[in-house]
Amino acid sequence: MKIRQIKQVFGGVVTGAAFIVCSQTSLAQDGKDWQDSLLVKMDRQGKVYDDIALRIGALAEIGHQEVQSSALLQKHLKQKGFSIAAGVAGMPTAFVASYGSGKPVIGIVAEFDALPGLSQTTDPVRTVNSHNSAGHACGHHLLGTGAIEAAVAVKDWLKKSGHKGTIRVYGAPAEEGGGGKVYLAREGHLDDVDALLNWHPWDQNASNSLSTLSNYNGKFRFYGTPSHAAAAPEKGRSALDGVEAMNHMVNMMREHLSEKTRVHYVITAGGDAPNVVPKFAEVYYYARHPDPAEVKRTWAWIKNAAEGAALGTGTRVESEILNAVYPVLPNDVMSRLVHRNLTRVGGVSYTAEETKFANKVMESYALGPVSLKRAEQIQDLETGDRVLSASSDVGDLSWIAPTNWLSTATWVPGTSAHSWQAVAAGNMSIGLKGMRVASKVMALSAIELFQTPTLVAAAKAEMEKRRGPGFTYKALLGDRKPPLDYRKK
């Protein structure tokens, strides 16, 4: 064992944290035999999980509407001996699946929501799937399926070895803006978890100890007075004017926001006909920053702009926070553990047919092709102060239980998330291969956590140092109920 000193920046404050980091040599007493046996068994059972992933990929159900996708995952876990608590935290598609008893409790996160408007076939050129308007452009069909594959492998090991402990799967809906994990965290479903394993589809293989952006998002709804836009405009008050005035003021705000603040929006409703003064208009906003306190201040300013716009246009405005998440709290102990197992499992190699597919996909890249070798390579472990320019409700969980950040090459190198290219690769063999890498890495890592109490203790000690003294988790979105209809028109 050795002591490593690190520094982490949150909200402009640099804090030093000394903690125990496990050495690069596995502490498991059973040697590599159990690892080899586990990987062989997972390969034999792989087609079962490939089929589940492709079924969920075809369903492409959007946030809080993942009824069939959630049911598929739950059914498989139940068949494998897990107890299921369904519809938890006020979300019909959320679930918690458990096997075993006692400590440690090791959790694995499963997501399964798709994105609207990103339908795509498995063709390497833009081709909309006529059967569904949504698509798994962030690979959550792979994410959820890979999670349960890992959990079942760990369950089989627990049963065979007689080892004490609990493996748990958190079925978390609506990651894309709905904040499903926040409600699981707020209702206490992770309070007894000792360590949490998490992964995400990507275009490369990496285990990093990095942070993300805190995020507030919500909708502003303006109500006006309809009238004939030509014959009686003086009798009308345009709700769309309210939205446009608000957007103009927010865009002027940008000059005075801190450098790391991000604000973006879309107008989701703006009227039905040009000759009718719009009686209703709606705009959907996101605000992001590494520090949750800074995002909260920015959101308050945005709300003031909305109220001023309503006053100036003679309209009325209502606002609703849909989601608010913490940044991911990095954990070097967890990331080093996962990186070691990722290096053991290795990356993704392409067949001739997959290479042809990948080369065709890369023709669509604005910045040109990227080396396909990236799918095979394992990126160096990155620790430090870098913040990813994205947000995830995994952030909330990471302040409650030590959490890793793993990505594997489920997409053609160079592919960005939330793209048709991600949907295409994620629903064919390239995506499935990357998912299998992730499931193996998480299974190996979970078992090592069960075998090594000092590793769990070190991860928890690091989390507590990074959180700072006196931290108590409190959801940023307050006591609002889950936005079950946020994706409905």
Written overview of the protein:
One of its GO terms (molecular function) is dipeptidase activity. Keywords: Hydrolase. This is Amidohydrolase. Residues 218-308 form the Peptidase M20 dimerisation domain. It comes from Paremcibacter congregatus. This protein is an alpha/beta fold. It has two domains: 2-212 and 327-467, Aminopeptidase (3-Layer(aba) Sandwich), CATH 3.40.630; 214-325, Alpha-Beta Plaits, CATH 3.30.70. It has 13 helices and 17 strands. The protein has helices at 33-44, 46-59, 67-79, 140-161, 180-186, 239-253, 292-313, 332-345, 352-362, 394-398, 420-426, 429-451, 453-467, and strands at residues 2-10, 13-21, 83-86, 95-101, 105-110, 115-116, 134-135, 165-171, 195-197, 199-202, 206-211, 214-223, 262-269, 280-289, 316-325, 382-387, 406-409. The strands form five sheets. A five-stranded mixed β-sheet has the order 3-4-8-5-9. The protein has a four-stranded mixed β-sheet with strand order 10-17-11-16. It has a four-stranded antiparallel β-sheet with strand order 13-14-12-15. Strand 3 (83-86) and strand 4 form a beta hairpin. Helix 2 packs antiparallel against helix 4 (140-161), helix 4 runs parallel beside helix 12 (429-451) and helix 8 packs across helix 12. The longest helix has 23 residues, at 429-451. The N and C termini lie far apart (55 Å). Residues 1-30 have low confidence and may be disordered.
